[in-house]
Here is the input.
Amino acid sequence: MAAANAAARAGAEVVLVDGEPTLGGQYYRGTPQRVDPAVEHLAESAVWAMEGLRLHIRTGAADSPHRTGTVVDADAVVLATGAHDRVVPFPGWDLPGVYTAGAAQTLAKSQGIAVGARVVVSGTGPFLLPVAESLVKVGARVLGVCEANSGTGWLRHPRAANPGKMAELAHYAGMLLKLRVPLWRKTAVVAAHGTDRVTAVTIARLNPDWTIRATRRIEVDAVCVGHGFTPRLELAVAAGCALKDGFVAVDERGATSVPGVYAAGEITGIGGADLAAAEGEVAGAAAAGSESTKSLTGARRFAAALADAHPIKPGWQTWLTPETLVCRCEEVTYQALCAATDLDAAGVRTLKLTSRVGLGLCQGRMCGRNATELAATRLDQAFFDEAALHRRPIATPIRLSELAETPLEPQEDP
Amino acid sequence: MGLPDVVVVGAGVIGAACAEALSAAGLRVTVLDRGPLAAGTSAAGEGNVLVSDKEPGPELDLALASLARWPELLDRVGHDVEWDPKGGLVVATGDPSLLAGFAAHQRAAGVDARLIGPAEAFEREPQLTRRVTTAVHYPQDAQLQPVLATTALLDAVRKRGGVLRPGVTALGFGPDGVRTSDGVVPCGAVVNACGPWSGAVSRALGAPIDIQPRRGMVLVTAPMPHTVRHKVYDADYVGAVASGDADLQTSTVVESTAAGTVLIGSSRERVGFDESIRVRVLRELARKAVALFPGLADVPVMRAYGGFRPYAPDHLPVIGADPRVPGLWHATGHEGAGIGLAPATGALLAELLTGARPHVDPQPFRVDRPGVLA
Here is the structure.
């Protein structure tokens, strides 16, 4: 929205392609939003393929038989595809009743539904706090929030001090106190138990590397897990954008390595809604050939400090048993993944095709990073190139009949 | 004089089959690949083991020899590679006489090609379009999962003491061995099995051959109940395989995999090593697939992948010694048929290299034929 607004203000003709039926994305879900009236908002739409600066768009609900296809030739494209929850696997994480923190928050925010009556939230990062708050608001009893890291690492970055952000974090911490939700640091849900659905979890005290020190078991009827975020990079990779440290590489104007393609928000680094909006404004203005006066330095520094304080530590790999599923779509166990890596499956494509990890409906969005980290630990030599993990030339599924009739060129306005 | 130690460059199915055959013959083998194992052309195909698409000639002879070897080879290496002797079904929707004539020709060359009417075709493939005018059933056609097959062959090489070195690039070849990005690997012979990259590697090894890439794309649907039983393709596939035209050609090939997905091919374009997606190609594939199987219209396409087939100017594999550089051998140029032709290629190369009696006539595949020496 920020990029569209900034580009429109700069005088560009703007199309906003939005996967959701209403504006606002995940952060503003349930709170009505507006954009500059000059922006053409394509709701429930997805770019399923990019050929240079030509976008192939499908509009309509995913299950609708009447989706339509359009083609837009742009002079510039701003990618702001965001991120989805990352979840590291543990025994029982595939049981009904185990939710991603994001999914639990979406259900609470958009439909007022609590995922359970007795819930534990587990993972790492400040995002867990508002998730717990949303759950309490819709009537769940949150037994505790497990934060796998100590959560104080950012105090070591005094230069990162950002009063607004600190106040926001303090607000959530205070909120948890008020709601009587304990925050358990250096702690994680390391196993979920139950036959048809989750009935209990094992909570572990963790060492700094996330290996287990001690465990206890508590009864729950739902678990929400979130270990930070994975950027949605398929369009950026399809466009040919260079990556750096797992994110789209951008300059201070949001320009990627591909002329005419800009990027903003979580795909350039996890930083939260405020930073994403500021980046959007800068990239949107740049894409329209203008310039924003916005400075991103302070906000980026804070985001980097926060990310430093909530790393994913390799000790999670010790939580797994041979039977733990690594890839849920294709039901690939940790054991099967190990068997594949023992055949020297040291590349992304080889690993996928020998173990079937990441070949299912989610196309590796959930499991790709976990699987390659597990395999890399097991192998001395690995060639897991970051882009290969996100190479999905068909960015969202398209029905064969839709593809058979998809337009190849932009249509003239009637 | 003893047999030389051999370096095989290229860890795709052809390199793996050569290394397997050489190590089975008792030679010490090192396999190099500049990237991961089985990650190039072998990871980008459908796993075809076909006789149906080949006209009588040397390639068909090699295919028949290979077909006879695959099951025995898989027994020997002992891995599950999703081998499925599902049979092929070639259907015509136009003039039935062309396909019937082609099949008769193949029968004479030893292919089990059974002309069946539309009624039997529908019985075999209930979802098939009713526009089919005639069909040929090829019970010999099979499919396997090519990356599993390649890694299985390489695993056998390793178990016999061979060395696999992914991530090592071959840079040159001399009397002391193969010069690589990670030191010299001593050897008496080197096999260039680099598929579409064989042209570049042959230059590095001192004797250029003309092998070009031909791009192909495959669509993969979401997993679904098993609705396509054979490998089903349109009779126009035969023409596309044998063509050298640079323009886009597509011909419909539809089949299910063990995982329940449906694979839809195939396209052929000469665009160098350009990997960018072309919606025009995907649309063409989708159109023809829906025309052949109208029931697939609502199935979501989950993924598209592409790869590069290696082809020689005369569309025949190149297997044998290079007359210009003693100790240099080539096994490449199998176009889209590398999986199917691998076992006989590996065996033939090992026979020629060890001086054993070749099980197929090596003459048509020799390196010093017109157009191949560059």
Summary: Residues 163-178 of chain A form the longest helix (16 residues). The mean pLDDT of chain A is 89. The interface with chain B takes residues 49-52, 56, 65, 238, 240, 330, 343-347, 349-350, 353-354, 356, 359-361, 363, 381, 383, 392-394, 397-401, 403-406, 408 of chain A (CB under 8 Å). The two ends of chain A are 27 Å apart (CA to CA).
